[in-house]
Amino acid sequence: MAIKADDRLIVALDFHTMEDVKALVEKLGDSVSYYKVGMELFYSVGGEVVRWLRGQGKHVFLDLKLHDIPNTVAGGLCSLMDLGADILNVHASGGYTMMKTAADRLHAAAEERGIPCPKLIAITVLTSINQEDWDGVGQTLPIQDAVVRLAKLAKSAGLDGVVASPQEAALIREACGADFLIVTPGVRPAGSAINDQSRIATPAKALTNGASHLVIGRPIRAAEDPKAAAEAILKEMETVK
Ligand SMILES: O=C(O)c1cc(=O)[nH]c(=O)n1[C@@H]1O[C@H](COP(=O)(O)O)[C@@H](O)[C@H]1O
């Protein structure tokens, strides 16, 4: 997939103040062009942060992981789309009907409002889930089989891609084709702290496996020099053809 390395790195802004956001975005400067706004930040500062990032010329993945009945999820996405994020997401485990209703209503709303439609992607199995968690919720398929099944379901419902661990990216790429977005958190440069992630891989391995975008938070945010950490990751990403 011919996307530049700096458009494939999405830095997770897991903060709860605009001051922290502005300080990091300023520090990273032109090195990073894509940011993720998740629930910690959105619940505390609201849509202002998406508008601010867009005003800085940055791309935004608004990661609110919607999971509810079809009508509620579709309505929620239509409310969010005016903020101008490039990517929105839902949980694939909400099922085919929820995802199809969401995708159809989002496309119709974009057309009606005359604005570009954000990409809609689905969480397959969270990257923090390990075998014990998986067994604990009564799942019996191997995790990777469940991920591929959910990715195919998301594709058939008209979604643009999925969120999955880098360990499953190759299987998803094979099952869902070259243009499907595969956004992988759970990325850790060699030697960095794993934190609460379980199914991880290095930036180079994630790309080799077929990820289109990498979501990375703490290895950059918690680094003594976040810009140097981001640039080292981008350099590693550029080694993958
Ligand atoms: O949707 C996500 O972005 C997401 C899905 C998933 O399965 N795992 C996952 O870690 N994430 C998000 O990706 C980011 C990973 O952050 P770090 O673990 O700090 O690199 C966090 O903001 C998570 O909310």
From TrEMBL:
Entry annotation: catalytic residues: 63, 65, 68
Pfam families for the chain: OMPdecase
Tree of life domain: Bacteria
UniProt keyword annotation of Iron present: no
EC number: 4.1.1.23
Top enzyme category: lyase
UniProt name for this protein: Orotidine 5'-phosphate decarboxylase
Gene that this polypeptide is encoded by: pyrF
